Amino acid sequence: MQVKDISIEYFKKTIPFSKDYLEFVKNQKLNHHETQNNNYDYDEPNKELLDLTLKQLDPFFKEVGIYLGYKKYGLVKAWIQHYEKGHFHDLHTHESIKDFYSFSYIIDCTEDSSHLNLYNPGYPYLSYYAKKIKPEIGLCTLFPCFLPHSVDPNKDNVRLIVSGNIKWQK
Ligand SMILES: [Fe+2]
Q: How close is the Cα of 165 to the center of ligand 1, in Å?
């Protein structure tokens, strides 16, 4: 489950989801942006999205938490991103807060969907190596929130993910 091909450990697992969850995610209203469609900037947390996503990913998060030595966690935020052709996500990190992890959960994709690029901490100053994670339906990648990551320009109209942050507690 744990992967060590960049200098920081991250975690991957394929977690199948129900038709109801798929329909729910597909039916959420997203704001259109130049880079990708998303519902990141909402005023009120989308409680239903948080609850349904937690139901899907809780066993995976718990398994990783035990491995990392944490007792519990909270889902801090979740949002949806839909990539049409040419959409992308610039190099970014989510937070620099202790015990924060971020995730990307693939809900829909094709062979032409862009990979998730994970970089070593300090990129682009310290290292050019990227780990490219090929999207697969149901694949969840969980990584420390400070890891630089990006999505190259997409080549289909399908790439759909749920992303978010969790905070571990001892
Ligand atoms: Fe991100």
A: 9
Contacts 24+ apart (CB under 8 A), 74-78: 74/166, 74/167, 74/169, 75/50, 75/164, 75/165, 75/166, 76/100, 76/164, 76/165, 76/166, 76/167, 77/45, 77/50, 77/164, 77/165, 78/46, 78/49, 78/50, 78/53, 78/162, 78/163, 78/164
CA of 77 to the centre of ligand 1 (A): 12
pLDDT per residue as tens digits for the range 43-100: 677 899 999 999 999 999 999 999 999 999 999 999 999 999 999 999 999 988 889 9
CA of 148 to the centre of ligand 1 (A): 8
What's this model's pTM, rounded to 2 decimal places? 0.93
Instruction: Please tell me which residue, 41 or 85, carries the higher pLDDT value.
Output: 85
Going along the chain from its start, the domains and CATH numbers come out as 2-169 (2.60.120.620)
